[in-house]
Specification:
Helices cover 42% and strands 18% of the residues. The strands form five sheets. It has a five-stranded mixed sheet. Strands 8-9-7-10 form a four-stranded antiparallel sheet. Helix 8 packs across helix 9. It holds the Pfam family NDK.
């Protein structure tokens, strides 16, 4: 009862127009979760709101929930299935957040609360907005085609996903009913084609799941009868894929019936394989699936040159020791401010041999000894930056390599701003061409292998969804093995934790049922897999990494769904333990980091923002349990 009372106090319930007007007339900032009667309020954000409220203790901040069907002012929000949070101050709309995006919600709450205090305390003007997504919907009136023609186009910038109504749902006569529910939920169907896949086509479509035990059964099922293949979009969605996956529900039908009873899979599926509908896992997969089923369906483009100029590109950036030590955060913020995304980053102490290899074209130059001394004076931060024309934009941002020229002719450049006046070597590096960028990125972020495991609890409930997300994140599964650890094997597997309070419980849990062990390959695989997993504690994962595997599938610190090696050395040990004596391959032996450098890297990675999740995790910290 106490917990229920706390929830009521945390979020005011608005049931009618009169209450709506009364709440909005309150002083301060009101964050309203507007929801449809059939799906209810967004429960996943309650813990975040309680945390913010407890930490701030500010009477000017209120939370509320409002059912759109019973409030006239929310008429335009009816029929939307995506979680929507409206921010009101002084009765005016000041911000909108769509989706249960915890970091964005927290940031918006803090920013809008601070802005409202300035309005109340200093008489500043309140910045009132209109919900742009609703305005865009009102402007759209053109009918959508039912069947794709050779010249059918998806407007540039429009988010889409490929959906399949599977043979089981079609055979039971549910296709039209499902399509109607899709449209009622606000999704647009850009194409709808009935198709019977051959076994060869089904095998090609699901090739990324070829290592799974039930792969052949999946192929036979998907080629057993007609299915409907759809292209789905949704007005106002920057990325329709998370909304669609939320709408169809978990892969496991029993889990869907328990956790998302209103989802399509809960209503029309019967088991994991026969779960009625399919949805792309991410944009890359959606693009591949679009090309597979609709080769003539193209993204609208002004012209080939314009399209090429918008293609994201990667470049390498290095922050050298002096600036990294004193002004790292300022440089990183400057990078983000101009629109770069940081795809990968690694803090590393380079050896003399590595420096000579990386700068081999400069070894004979007069300035090389000073450069080498600078590079060996402390760790450097390597960044893989992503942006349209990244190489050109990053070099323009850096300014001239010569410091005197940079200070005289480009005083606003990064090299002029951040290189210490007493230094003779500039403190920032950028690739000179796209080809050099890829070579340099491969030097610092070679293709690695890491060990990943799906633990017993997640094997029972979420195996397929986790496998989909692994593939969607760009990992290659080079080997896969389902195994049931006995006590001796589990104790050896987690030997780093022997003697710790949780060791016996961890071993017992890992012996409870089968695990799925995998060797994953990717650039920077160890750190990328740890990032995809998220923090050990799922409570922390919900807040800091809401899209991580542990945020989505973990039950507790112990039953946290997945395992990953904490560094390359541990990855090799665990791979050899599970799969036998396997020599880890490298993408390019000439750019192989030495064992000493790898040890240095492990020590310095603890200071990196992007890596070393152990900083924020509860025990165990040596090996991510």
């Amino acid at each position: 009862m106490a917990g229920k009372k706390k929830d009521i106090i945390l979020q005011i319930t608005i049931n009618n127009q009169e209450q709506w007007e009364e709440v909005l007339s309150s002083k301060g900032l009101i964050v309203v979760d507007v929801y449809q009667a059939w799906c209810g309020p967004c429960k996943t954000t309650v813990s975040l709101f309680r945390k913010i409220k407890n930490e701030l203790g500010d009477d000017l901040l209120q939370f509320a929930v409002a059912e759109v069907d019973s409030i006239d002012a929310l008429e335009k929000y009816r029929g939307k299935c995506e979680p929507t949070f409206l921010f009101f101050a002084g009765g005016d709309l000041v911000a909108v957040v769509r989706g249960a995006n915890a970091p964005l919600l927290q940031k918006t709450i803090l920013e809008q609360l601070e802005a409202e205090k300035k309005v109340l305390n200093h008489g500043l003007d309140r910045k009132v907005i209109k919900d742009e997504a609703l305005l865009e919907e009102e402007e759209e009136s053109s009918p959508l085609p039912a069947q794709p023609e050779d010249d059918d186009l998806i407007p540039s910038g429009k988010s889409y996903t490929v959906a399949i109504i599977k043979p089981d749902a079609v055979a039971h006569g549910k296709a039209d009913e499902i399509i109607m529910k899709i449209q009622e939920a606000g999704f647009e169907i850009l194409a709808n084609e009935e198709k019977t896949m051959s076994e060869s086509e089904a095998r090609g479509f699901y090739h990324h799941r070829a290592g799974e035990e039930k792969f052949q059964e999946l192929v036979q099922f998907m080629s057993s009868g007609p299915c409907h293949v759809l292209i789905i979009s949704r007005s106002g969605d920057e990325d329709v894929i998370p909304t669609w996956r939320e709408f169809i529900g978990p892969t496991d039908v029993e889990v869907a019936k328990k956790e998302k009873p209103e989802s399509l899979r809960a209503q029309y599926g019967t088991e994991v394989l026969y779960n009625a509908v399919h949805g792309s896992n991410d944009r890359e997969q959606a693009s591949r699936e679009l090309a597979f089923f609709f080769p003539s369906f193209k993204l609208q483009q002004q012209n080939t040159e314009e399209s090429a100029s918008r293609t994201p590109e990667r470049t390498l950036a290095l922050i050298r020791p002096d600036v990294l030590r004193d002004r790292k955060d300022e440089v990183l913020q400057s990078i983000r401010d101009v629109g770069f995304s940081i795809a990968m980053q690694k803090e590393i102490m380079l050896t003399e041999q590595q420096i000579r290899e990386f700068y081999k074209e400069h070894v004979d130059q007069e300035y090389f000894p000073a450069l080498q001394q600078q590079m060996m004076s402390g760790p450097v931060l390597a960044l893989a930056l992503v942006k349209d024309d990244a190489v050109k934009h990053w070099r323009n941002l850096l300014g001239p390599a010569d410091l005197t020229e940079a200070l005289s002719n480009a005083p606003d450049s990064l090299r002029a701003r951040f290189t210490p006046r007493e230094s003779t070597i500039n403190q920032l590096h950028g690739s000179s061409s796209p080809i050099e960028a890829e070579n340099e990125i491969n030097f610092f972020f070679p293709v690695e292998k890491t060990l990943a495991a799906i633990k017993p609890d997640a094997m029972e409930e979420h195996r397929d969804e986790i496998m989909e997300r692994i593939q969607g994140a760009g990992f290659t599964i080079s080997q896969i093995k389902e195994t049931h650890l006995n006590q001796e094997m589990a104790e050896e597997f987690y030997k780093e934790h022997r003697g710790k309070p949780f060791f016996d419980e961890l071993v017992k849990y890992m012996c409870r049922g089968p695990c799925l062990m995998m060797i994953l390959s990717k650039e920077n695989a160890v750190q990328e897999w740890r990032s995809l997993m998220g923090p050990t504690d799922p409570t922390e994962a919900h807040t800091s990494s809401p899209d991580s595997l542990r945020s989505l599938f973990a039950k507790s610190v112990l039953q946290n769904a997945v395992h990953g090696s904490s560094n390359e050395k541990h990855a090799m040990e665990k791979i050899n333990f599970i799969f036998g004596d396997i020599e880890l391959e490298r993408a390019n032996n000439e750019t192989l980091l030495s064992d000493d450098a790898a040890d240095d890297m492990k020590q310095s990675e603890d200071n990196s923002e992007h890596t070393a999740p152990e900083e924020h995790e509860a025990e165990p910290s040596q090996e991510n349990s």
